[in-house]
Amino acid sequence: MILFDSDYTEGAHPSILKLLSETNMEQTCGYGEDEYCEKAARRLKELCAAPDADVHFITGGTQTNLTLITAALRPHQGVISADTGHIAVHESGAIEASGHKVLTLPDDSGKISAQQILRFCEDHYRDETREHMVQPGLVYLSQPTELGTLYSARELADIRSVCDRFGLFLYIDGARCGYGLAAEGADFTLPLLAELCDAFYIGGTKVGALFGEALLILHPALKKDFRYILKQRVGRLAKGRILGLQFLALFSDDTYFRISRHADQLACRLRDALTVCGCPFLIRSDTNQQFPVLPDSVLEKLRQKYGFSYWQRTDETHSAVRFCTSWATREEDVDMLIRDITALLKEA
Amino acid sequence: MILFDSDYTEGAHPSILKLLSETNMEQTCGYGEDEYCEKAARRLKELCAAPDADVHFITGGTQTNLTLITAALRPHQGVISADTGHIAVHESGAIEASGHKVLTLPDDSGKISAQQILRFCEDHYRDETREHMVQPGLVYLSQPTELGTLYSARELADIRSVCDRFGLFLYIDGARCGYGLAAEGADFTLPLLAELCDAFYIGGTKVGALFGEALLILHPALKKDFRYILKQRVGRLAKGRILGLQFLALFSDDTYFRISRHADQLACRLRDALTVCGCPFLIRSDTNQQFPVLPDSVLEKLRQKYGFSYWQRTDETHSAVRFCTSWATREEDVDMLIRDITALLKEA
Amino acid sequence: MILFDSDYTEGAHPSILKLLSETNMEQTCGYGEDEYCEKAARRLKELCAAPDADVHFITGGTQTNLTLITAALRPHQGVISADTGHIAVHESGAIEASGHKVLTLPDDSGKISAQQILRFCEDHYRDETREHMVQPGLVYLSQPTELGTLYSARELADIRSVCDRFGLFLYIDGARCGYGLAAEGADFTLPLLAELCDAFYIGGTKVGALFGEALLILHPALKKDFRYILKQRVGRLAKGRILGLQFLALFSDDTYFRISRHADQLACRLRDALTVCGCPFLIRSDTNQQFPVLPDSVLEKLRQKYGFSYWQRTDETHSAVRFCTSWATREEDVDMLIRDITALLKEA
Amino acid sequence: MILFDSDYTEGAHPSILKLLSETNMEQTCGYGEDEYCEKAARRLKELCAAPDADVHFITGGTQTNLTLITAALRPHQGVISADTGHIAVHESGAIEASGHKVLTLPDDSGKISAQQILRFCEDHYRDETREHMVQPGLVYLSQPTELGTLYSARELADIRSVCDRFGLFLYIDGARCGYGLAAEGADFTLPLLAELCDAFYIGGTKVGALFGEALLILHPALKKDFRYILKQRVGRLAKGRILGLQFLALFSDDTYFRISRHADQLACRLRDALTVCGCPFLIRSDTNQQFPVLPDSVLEKLRQKYGFSYWQRTDETHSAVRFCTSWATREEDVDMLIRDITALLKEA
């Protein structure tokens, strides 16, 4: 079986294990206050052109989302998200468990627009019973989205404007940040994220790390006492240096960007090859997730050899599925997959 | 100005004030453990043919919903509700503040169906990633709904069946219970609610009380330690007898049913008169809330003399509004309202 | 049986029922935005010499404490309280249920001192692992305390200084505020509370109202969006005017102060008479709660005729109990109680 | 500098890094449902003689405590803990943030007794106002305690009896479980923990892992849907196998027990050597944490060469400090430390 189920089917990029081994017997203090974390933080701030950012290394994406959102909202506030947003769907109600409603807007290919957010906020503040409703306090975006799509620099700037108008924080979930930055045609950059967002994170778990995310906080109000909240929301690691070391490895020698590019290129190769065969896609993606629509009969046969995620039924005989690539995906496996699908489609 | 904004624009039914005055100097113990609460509880259990029910008198509807739902759910569970449900819209996120997601289904005239709930649960349990999602734990219905509509006995029984199949509690918000029971054509009864529900409440605030709701708990698992949780969720009143006394007054001499009928009849008189004039309604209601669709020009003039709630725009020149009647509504005011609207419609 | 169990054994001061009856058929808007609430708020602001205060009328004390504390704290913060504080003992964990730890300090006759708070905060900020601990965010005091004692103006000012030094909010629970203001020798005033506190409430439930408390918010940061949070924490009443009307009645003709004085005087009469008989007290109180230490044999006999609260065992044959007086306590009942205890003590 | 600050100053036991490297390129499914986790779970169940236990591998101790306690308690319940318990002191209010009060009992050398728990529960259920208080729902013990002490098998069995009597869950935090099992004179075993507890965890983070704990759930009510709650409380790792692999490594070739013994022996060597010099200890410990009481002048000099934790002042010129050993502690470092302290004590 060859797995394309997710971008976390293997361990870690070898440079990470190497660095962990080399430093293994060194003694450091705990909870991310060691020199490796400091060094990794410095490197990320440089890359983001954000010398004043606070950087926190956190064990996982759900923790990062939960902790930042909790730190940002007052009790009566909620977070605006696409209805396909990770926090709205796949975190078992972690946001609600921390007391806040996720205010979902219908997505367009995984994205929401400045216009939608504007209308939602206008409606809220115009409503005479608004004090009986949840007040929007923060906008959550995923870049790339859960459907592999990307916000353009322009779209992000427009959303920032609406946030400014209604006093909303802007936070970006960059679980797959690398795959977005490396995508062909992407026009956003790390410094742009640092300029527009109040906070965002650069994902490790899905981009080559054993685990771990790097959160950058730009807004001063969110910086204050964040480590208290992070401990409370169980995002701090005793041997915190393990997180710093992983980001040091990923952000040495262009590794993070190189492995992201690798994954994107293989994903797009799959996309382009299937498109040639006439296979439609649920959505146009330039990143490491691809959502072809295939006949159920083809899928059944494919499943004997490959792992992938069922996404949704599109008509009585077809379904959309998801294939993920990653730093660990082998070119020959993608080529074999293409050959197999192409052949099955011909048969079908 | 004559207000039709809500069913709580006046004080309390006079029989309540009378009873409060008569008993004012008596000494009783607190927190609802006095003899008046006991007597009122006994009467409600008789009316509901539910001798084993636990009855709790609670200060308001949001408290009642919040406390019952909190007591019923485990941390990973959410509550299924129509997207128009009170808990989903107008409780400022009280359910989320207690840690639980409201799992909304699109409403049909304020109602959700057994079929929708079935499909939602099937989808949940079929999903391989369900442990990353909120598990449905309870179904919340309003009877009558926020749009004045009613579930039939059959619809309720069907929903109960789905609840049984998926281990869901069934809870009914009866804030306007009286107006439902008194409605022409309504085929549900208090004993039926007691038979089908795990818990439900009989509303006082919107049906003649100063404030207060009577919660009946049928399911043993929900009875255990409920008063602890009620205190924690601030629903217990120090001078608890005030709640018992109000329900005693309301459920003497058929008062609760009589005043509900009064309100329904006046609401339907308004409905029928406007219908004759060709005025459409957002929704067909037999209860004390009516939602006529009127020209904006008519509404502008009406507003100078009457209070009512704006509901929603229906086209460029028309809007739906809400008129509420109650125990306190005067026949002559409704007749005047009818005459005024009729005249304005003719002019328009 | 004559009950001295609590200060809420009867209904409401008659002037309240009278005002409710007189205004019963008037129509007003809901949720405390009516003219009666506005008028009552104005009166309280005048009495407190706090023209810029926000006044909210809330259904009960636990709601008031919970909502204010929730609105004031960030997620990692806790509230400092005496270990005898109402929020620490008798609210079923309502503060914890809203996510915050109660940081208790050992009480001295129900009170904590500026010195204790200072030491606690210094210890916290000196501790290298403080980010793994709950940060103090607010000081909660009861005035009078749960043991009937009072903070002097000087003690309150000292506590305010410590709060300023560590960025703590100061909040006072005035459930029995009237009994404190009316106490002989009390040197604090409503304007002083308004000057020193960030928020405090003037209790109604225990001082003659059917129910309800008046919260005054002084600090701008706590004012913002408070009504959203109040709705969420279920402290808003649909027929909100009932709360405003009660405070209007209580604060007309000096009623609130007069009935508080009445209660204090009867309580002190009991205290002084028992002291003459050589009966010790758990604590010296000038307010409406008295805690005599009596032989268990005496208590057993007293219980056949009077209700009162068991407090704690003081030695093998004696226990402290609590007697409460209120606006409704009759002089002749206190005199009879004194005679009975005196006689029983002689026998014993 | 040689650090004795904690048991997590180095990376991981080399066998762990080796196993991670060997399996790095294998593809597995995520979230702990892979074969390595399954294999590790099987091994732990064997060692605990608990074939029906559910085993969950969780990223850290605070997560494990938080999630288990959250899963076990109803909203009105709290957790009984020593006032020195980790959840009471050093988790930044994580338990309160999940809505539950920590009901602290005064510790005796880090431990609480069956007798104390019994008295606490009796007092609770005897109190007439108990519904206004937090109900005890679970007993939390640390074995070894935060002070390095151990409960005997007898003490644990007695506590279990009290739990049975009052319907309390019994949960043991085994963050340093290994050091307890390996301690001289310890008379508890893994099978005994499995027999007496409703749940307990075997710590990895502090006993040689990069991070991670193994939770064993014995009580059926706690097993149900635990993974939903674990995801919600952010304790699930995407690349879950990393946790399984670490426990496989630790529980191969007796590693876990061997390295624990190593740490205990070095800690006791330190203890015995200092005792010979007449140095008193805050507490008698047979595990890897030692709390000598030393002159402040000695500590000042020691600090230039060694890291250790300041614990508490014991008199005007002495303080207790903590030294930790671990799998990574070198014999020669301990010997040097002993020589240095001995010399400094002689000088002093």
Map the helices and strands:
Four copies of one chain form a homotetramer.
Chain A: E1 2-3, H1 14-22, H2 35-47, E2 54-58, H3 61-72, E3 77-82, H4 86-89, H5 94-97, E4 102-105, H6 114-126, E5 135-142, H7 153-166, E6 169-173, H8 177-181, H9 190-196, E7 199-203, E8 213-217, H10 220-223, H11 226-232, H12 241-250, H13 255-276, E9 289-290, E10 293-295, H14 296-302, E11 306-307, E12 309-315, E13 318-324, H15 331-347
Parallel strand pairs in A: 1-11, 3-4, 3-5, 5-6, 6-7
Antiparallel strand pairs in A: 2-8, 7-8, 9-13, 10-13, 12-13
Helix pairs in contact in A: 1-12, 2-12, 6-7, 13-15
Short description:
4 copies of one chain form a homotetramer. With 348 residues, chain A is α/β, with parallel strands linked by helices.
Range of helix content of chain A: 40-55%
Largest interface: A-D, 52 and 52 residues
Q: How many separate helices of chain A?
A: 15
Helix/strand order of chain A, N-terminal first: EHHEHEHHEHEHEHHEEHHHHEEHEEEH
Distance between the termini of chain A: 22 Å
Shape of chain A: globular
Main beta sheet strand tally, sense and closure of chain A: 7 strands, mixed
Total E-strand runs of chain A: 13
Mean pLDDT of chain A: 97
Adjacency order of strands in the biggest sheet of chain A: 2-8-7-6-5-3-4
Q: What is the quaternary state of this protein?
A: homotetramer
Q: Could you name the ranges of chain A where pLDDT drops below 50 across 5 or more consecutive residues?
A: none
Find the structural class of chain A using helix and strand composition: alpha/beta
Strand content of chain A: 15-25%
